[in-house]
Design brief:
2 strands, DivIVA_domain, two-stranded antiparallel sheet, DivIVA domain-containing protein, mainly alpha, about 60% helix, rod-shaped
């Protein structure tokens, strides 16, 4: 039984050392980074977001691909927010003009 344990430990130790030394091949070359949303022109739609697939690497998703999508979405949200503020200002101006027309000014 003792000799069996010695052999098993020796196999594990030498196997680990062989893998650490590079015996058995290495990882393949890294593929070029696909950029999600790169082919989408114009505003991003909910369908575009539902179809996003990020490239997977050993420790999760490729950070540069995720950062690129988040940067684009942040820019589009900022643009939409600015447009909403602009339209609300126009609407408030139109409402003020409508009140002035509806309420005649007292003659002095």
């Amino acid at each position: 039984m003792f000799w069996l344990m010695v052999v098993v430990v020796a196999v594990v130790v030498f196997g680990t050392a062989a893998v650490a030394a590079g015996v058995g091949g290495t990882l393949g070359s890294v593929a070029p980074t696909p950029q999600p949303l790169a082919d989408v022109e114009g505003p991003v739609t909910s369908t575009d977001l539902a179809e996003i697939r990020f490239p997977v690497v050993v420790r999760g998703y490729r950070m540069d691909a995720v950062d690129a999508v988040l940067d684009r979405l942040a820019d589009e949200i900022a643009t939409r927010d600015a447009r909403i503020r602009e339209l609300e200002a126009v609407q408030a101006g139109n409402a003020a003009e409508s009140r002035e027309i509806a309420e005649p000014r007292p003659e002095s």
